[in-house]
Amino acid sequence: MPHATLKTGATLHYLDTAPQSDQPIVIAIHGMLGTGEIHLRHVINWLVGKGYRVIAPTMRGYGESTPKPRDFPPKFYHRDANDLLAFLDELKVEQAHIIGYSDGGEIALICVGTQPDRFLSVAAWGAVGYFAPEMRPVAQRMIPGSAWLKPDEMAIHGLTDADAFARGWVRSVVQMIDSGGDISLSLADKITCPVLIMLGKGDTLNPLSFAETFLAKVANGRLQLFDCGHAVHDEQTEAFYATLEKHLANSQ
Questions:
Q1: For residues 245 and 224, what is the distance between their CA atoms, to the nearest angstrom?
Q2: Are 58 and 30 spatial neighbours (Cβ–Cβ below 8 Å)?
Q3: Residue-by-residue DSSP string for 80-97
Q4: Which distant-in-sequence residues (6+ apart) come within 8 Å of 80 by Cβ?
Q5: Phi, psi angles (nearest 5°) of residue 120
Q6: Structural domains of the chain ordered from first start
Q7: Listed residue (63, 58, 65, 76) closest to 10, CA to CA
Q8: Radius of gyration for the alpha carbons in the chain, expressed in angstroms and rounded
Q9: What is the pTM of this model?
Q10: Structure confidence by residue, pLDDT tens digits, 117-158
């Protein structure tokens, strides 16, 4: 898989599945501790089977992308979104659908609010665009990272300190919450493409009320709930496919 060196200072490793496809491009963004291959491989395969060209970058600091180690400065979601938009510039992608899982969904929502004319549609799951105060204790339970970060994940992403990784993410997320919780909420009224947010009813990190706050500011938004937790695409795969297929088909 190739790499793209960006004007933002990042170099992103990426998967490009079907460069000759005449169908619209789908940009697929993974979540924390993932890559396109790790988090979204079966979704990518399914989309390719439907005729889409899928481009799945690995965000900075993860997998083979640099700089390392992966860190979490204030507004890191916006830094990732800037990387993604620069990545599309580098690949000369003028317009595309964008989908994102978890942190990747937050990045996708920022992108469509920042450059609305560039995207045909956005679908995000495990992401809500807004972090209310009640998320604070949920996020803080991510510490210590050594309690949940696996050795193989550490190796894949070149991490040496699980607790430092978790503290960095929690510190920045708590700062976002304490500053009003705006991830992409202030951009929501600028989004012109169809928006689909998919949530598991058991997703404790992304409750329904957060998504409703975001979608209330979107001109063309829809929420779909599933009987599962955070990873809708893995836990309710067929229902997820059906929902995403309809969304993409209606957004050409």
A1: 13
A2: yes
A3: HHHHHHHHHHHHT--SEE
A4: 59, 60, 103, 107
A5: -75, -30
A6: 3-129+184-249 (3.40.50.1820)
A7: 65
A8: 17
A9: 0.97
A10: 999 999 999 999 999 999 999 999 999 999 999 999 999 999
